[in-house]
Amino acid sequence: MYEALKKFISSKGDIAAPTLESICLHFDLISTNRNEILLQYEQVANYYYFVNKGAVRVFTITDDGQEISRYFAFEDTFVTALPSFIDQKPAEEFLQTIEKSELLRISREDFYQLVASVPVFAKIYTEILELGFITAQKRIYGFQGYDALYKVKWIIKNQPKLLLRVSNKMAASFLGISPATLSRLKAKL
């Protein structure tokens, strides 16, 4: 149950086996169905999730009812509504499993306790924040002024699992293009 998490944490630095076991005890295993909502819009994010198996989508809904996907997390990745998790204000997004998933969940209190007391876990948190910032910046600046073909090629290069495991509708909302355009471009590539 904890093998992927242990491997992930161990890859970030030297850590004693007892400390690794202690970290794992802070995580609860939850199994979800496809399309299960983990966090509702305007709910406060009190959990961080490690994806053992499956996929989680972070998305929002526009005033006219259109879903906009912001992020996809696959195996060996942490995911939450980070702004809400950090500042404990209502989330402006949803968390949803898009496949039947097996997740390891840690409470906010336990998460920050590990960040404060386990140097390797603090390093993981720093990497999560840095990677999130870099990915968001690349996506924002990389997409400005570029056509749909460039966006699809960017996804293939930077997030290859996305087009293989996510519906065209969700992927298109992430790219800011129509599902029909995405289908047409995928057929050409």
Number of strands: 8
The gyration radius over C-alpha positions equals 17 Å
Strand content: 15-25%
Query: For the residues shown, what is the average pLDDT?
Result: 91
How do the strands of the widest beta sheet line up side by side? 1-8-3-6
Derived structural class:
alpha+beta
Give the CATH class of the domain at 3-117. Answer: Mainly Beta
- Helicity level: 40-55%
CATH topology grouping of the domain at 3-117 = Jelly Rolls
SSE sequence, one letter per element: HHEEEEEEHEEHHHHHH
Task: Enumerate the spans where pLDDT stays under 50 for 5 or more consecutive residues.
Answer: none
Sketch the major β-sheet. 4 strands, antiparallel
The coarse silhouette is: globular
Question: Could you please describe the fold and organization of this structure?
Answer:
With 189 residues, the protein is α+β, with helices and mostly antiparallel strands. It has a domain at 3-117: Jelly Rolls (Sandwich), CATH 2.60.120. The chain has nine helices and eight strands. A four-stranded antiparallel β-sheet has the order 1-8-3-6. A hairpin with a 5-residue loop joins strand 4 and strand 5. Helix 4 packs across helix 5 (119-143) and helix 8 (168-175) crosses helix 9 (179-188). The longest helix is centred in the last third of the chain and has 25 residues, at 119-143. The chain is globular, with a radius of gyration of 17 Å.
